[in-house]
Amino acid sequence: MTRQDVIARLTDVSIGFPAMDGTVENVIDRVSLTIHSGERVGLLGASGSGKSLTALSLLGLAPPPGTFVGGTVEIQGKDVLTSSKSERGRLRGGAVGMVFQEAESALNPVMTIGAHLEEMIRRHRPKEAARWRYIAVDLLENVDLDPVRTLKSHPHRLSGGQRQRTLLALALAGDPDLIIADEPTSSLDVLTQARMLGLLDRLCRERSLALLLISHDLGVVSSLIDRVIVMLDGTIIEEATIQDFLETPIHPYSQSLVATARRTHPQVADL
Ligand SMILES: Nc1ncnc2c1ncn2[C@@H]1O[C@H](COP(=O)(O)OP(=O)(O)OP(=O)(O)O)[C@@H](O)[C@H]1O
Ligand SMILES: [Mg+2]
């Protein structure tokens, strides 16, 4: 694959929720974005600006009672919204792996991590189902978790940071080309945060993965990303390379993001 290959593309995607008066209110409105092979994109914006819904829409998902009101979603050139259920299942988790914002609720509390990994590997790599345990051990080692202990653990036995890394191992299980990580560090202490970002960086390099990294904190993610997309109130207000964005943010909200990042993260101030 060349770098210019498009892995995922949203074109004019709107997601609406039913309002009290019976109308439908668009909470993300005509959002368009493209993620190419191997690139790392930061999706920034305040709480409630529509980052998580945009990430879900990239998988062709709108959380009920939300629905797609308009637009198209393409993964590897396939129209996700009109493709068959099995094709959609293959694209979700196969081409695109997701690390959900709520690590706790993304895991089934009565299943061990081993059972989660077995299910993912059987679904996305059926030919390798018989050797799922070897693949699972390898994936857990890749995300710096103790495979023996983690495989037999239930989600509540893991720390927040271990749960995030488990989600990352699960997202990698389908051998995706793109990882979407929705606030993968927001509930972690500073050291665990740095470790998670270092891990994402290494995995992207080793596996030539593209990354959509969602955060409200530019300072935390700026060193990891090539390009920034900024959302405000359900729309994209700015898109730029990270260098251009740090040098000349255009929208007032972008300017405040950069100013905050420079104040709170000395490494950004030096750029
Ligand atoms: N189930 C729902 N019903 C109604 N509105 C919803 C629902 N889920 C999300 N929204 C609305 O959609 C908007 C975007 O939500 P989203 O979760 O994408 O924000 P976000 O940018 O990820 O925020 P955060 O940084 O807090 O995670 C918000 O205003 C939210 O209130
Ligand atoms: Mg969110």
How do the helices and strands line up, and which of them pair or pack?
Layout lengths: L5 E13 L5 E13 L3 E6 L5 H8 L8 E9 L2 E2 L5 H11 E4 L13 H12 L7 H11 L4 H5 L8 H14 L4 E5 L7 H18 L2 E6 L2 H4 L5 E6 L2 E7 H6 L4 H13 L1 H4 L2
Helix pairs in contact: 3-4, 3-6, 4-6
The structure holds adenosine-5'-triphosphate (ATP) and magnesium ion (MG).
Can you give keywords for this protein?
single chain, Rossmann fold, 11 helices, globular, binds adenosine-5'-triphosphate
% residues in beta strands: 25-35%
Q: Distance between the terminal alpha carbons, to the nearest Å?
A: 31 Å
Overall morphology: globular
Radius of gyration equals 18 Å
Order of helix and strand elements from N to C terminus: EEEHEEHEHHHHEHEHEEHHH
Could you give the order of strands across the largest sheet? 6-7-8-3-9-10
| CATH architecture annotation | 3-Layer(aba) Sandwich
Uncertain parts: none
Class computed from helices, strands and strand pairing: alpha/beta
Tell me roughly what share of residues is in helical segments. Answer: 25-40%
Number of strands: 10
Major sheet size, sense and barrel closure = 6 strands, mixed
CATH topology type:
Rossmann fold
Q: How many helices in DSSP terms?
A: 11
Overall tally of domains: 1
